[in-house]
Amino acid sequence: MDRLSGLDASFLYLETPEQLMHVCAVIVLDTSTMPNGYSYKEFRATLEERVKKLPPFTRRLRRVPLDLGHPVWVQDDHFDIAHHVHRMALPAPAGYDELMEIAGHFAGLPMDRGRPLWEMLVIEGYHNRDGREEVVVITKMHHSTVDGASGANLISYLCSLEPDSPALAPADLGRNEKGPGGLELMGRSVLDTLGRPLALPKLVQPSIDLISDTIGRARAGTTMAPPFTAPRTSFNGTIDGHRTVAIADLSLDDIKAVRKATGATVNDIVLSVAGGALREYLRERGELPDTTLMASVPVSVREESKRENGANKVSALFMRLGTDIEDPMERLASMAESNKNAKNHHKAIGADTLQDWAEFAAPRTFGLAMRAYAGMRLAEKHPVIHNLVISNVPGPPMPLYFVGAEIVGMYPLGPVMHGAGLNVTVLSKNGVVHVGIIAAKQSVRNPEKLVVHFPEELQKLTDAVSQGAG
Q: What is the DSSP letter of 54?
């Protein structure tokens, strides 16, 4: 029985009509590389052949009776690609603005939990900023199925290294099963629930040790940024169900040049660029707070985790973004030091701590609590936990071909939530860093006014590095 881990299931419980826990991506394709040219009929047929070999695409949820335990994954005996892959043609002339509008609309639509939790929208008639026509695929997968890293890997398994090569699908993604019947499932869940208190002492002592360690680090000034200390901004409140999207590209070579000159890591530079972009965005709106914004930064623990099951194997850092610092080089230096402290502090937290505590979530109670939190608009009443989520997802360093079409852009879009209605995710691929921004519409109506500052802030760093070298 492939039971959802507590962390995977938590993304189901967190979902409300306004807070949709999807992981999306805008994938821009150059169809001129396709051996037989582009045809939607052939494109979908090839895609269907590939997804059927990957269990995460053909499994669906089965709830435990009375919600006594976390759901399980079972084979969808009625899998139909038509329920998951949809086609749309943009009216001519259609470009970036129209694409972003469609991406935001698609990201704000819920998925049918009675079917495998993924969808793709194939968009034809898109003209890029150079006027060239391209096909765009917008993917959507539920966070209970993937995290950022596993989502990128799962999409890559549908791809190939050459236009006419077989897909990269691995042979070790598991298999789908029919799963146990209702009575058996309920019986197993009852036994699992009864056994949870026995595991509690194993969690309590490490947590007490962690608190003690954190107090010591705080006194020494080497702790990560504490939650509930972020300043309130216009994107830190109760969100609606509508989404806005914006994308941009950064040069990986420029980032590497800054890294070489300063000794900062790529992640330091990305976070510093994001901090500078947010500073400019809020300054232009007359909303720049005196204290720095704080981001929650997901961290993959796949290599350290001892858990075998679970699609999500992540922890998180809380990072100060230096939005109170005007000079880009000074901000980067501050970011590098802050990042170092946060990483060292994070090492003291067990890789599976978040997953272990998530196992104690009572499904029905958790879901009701989340809906009460949204309904009472509590995100606007307590101190801000963090201002936004920023993710840095490593991608392939070589060209990839999606059903024979070369991927020229792959822009990830993470979920937004009550209290943090803005998400920034970056993915490096083949020498380019793709930036994806998604927000609740009432929080950020025009994310384009934010994303334009990302290339500008990187340019400020490269200029400063060049002047220093000169």
A: -
Element (H, E) at 245: strand 243-251
Dihedral class, residue 430 (left if φ above 0, else alpha if ψ from -120 to 50, else beta): left
> Chain centroid to CA 463: how far?
31
Q: Which residues pair with 245 in a beta bridge?
A: 438
> Exactly one of 22, 142, 143, 345 is catalytic; which is it?
143
Question: For residue 75, what is the enclosing H or E element?
Answer: strand 72-75
Closest CA to 297 of 273, 322, 271: 271
pLDDT at 342: 67
- The position carrying tokens 């340019």 is 459
* Sheet containing 59-62, strands listed edge to edge, beginning at the edge strand earlier in sequence: 2-3, 72-75, 59-62
Phi (first) and psi of residue 126, to 5 degrees? -80, 130
Closest of 460, 464, 465, 416 to residue 436, by C-alpha: 416
Cis omega before residue 166 (within 30°)? no
What is the separation of C-alpha 189 from the centre of its chain, rounded to a whole number of angstroms? 30
- Give the whole-angstrom CA distance, residue 244 versus residue 233: 17
Crossing angle of helices 328-347 and 453-469, rounded to 10°? 100
HEC profile of 106-156: HHCCCCCCCCCCEEEEEEEEEECCCCCEEEEEEEEEECCCCCHHHHHHHHH
What does the pLDDT read at residue 188? 45
The DSSP-derived string for 14-47 is T--SS---EEEEEEEEEGGG-TT---HHHHHHHH
Assess whether 143 carries a catalytic annotation.
yes
The segments of the chain whose pLDDT lies below 70 read 1, 3, 6, 66-68, 147-150, 169-224, 300-315, 342-367, 469-470
Of the CA atoms within 13 Å of residue 50, those in its CB half-sphere come to: 23
The secondary structure of residue 81, as a DSSP letter, is G
According to DSSP, the residues that pair with 434 across neighbouring strands are 249, 427
Nearest to 102 by CA among 142, 129, 136, 146: 136
Outline where 235-302 has alpha helix (H).
252-262, 266-284
Pull the structure tokens for residue 185.
């499932």
Instruction: Identify whether the C-beta of residue 278 lies closer than 8 Å to the C-beta of residue 321.
Output: yes
Exposure letters 291-326 (e unless 16+ CB within 10 A, then b): ebbbbbbbbbbeeebeeeebbbbbbbbbbbbbbbbe
pLDDT of 327 reads 97
Distance CA 43, CA 87 (A): 11
Show the tokens assigned to 465: 């590095």
CB 69 within 8 A of CB 63: no
Instruction: Return the percentage of the chain with pLDDT > 90, whole number.
Output: 53
Closest CA relative to residue 70, chosen from 196, 176, 168: 196
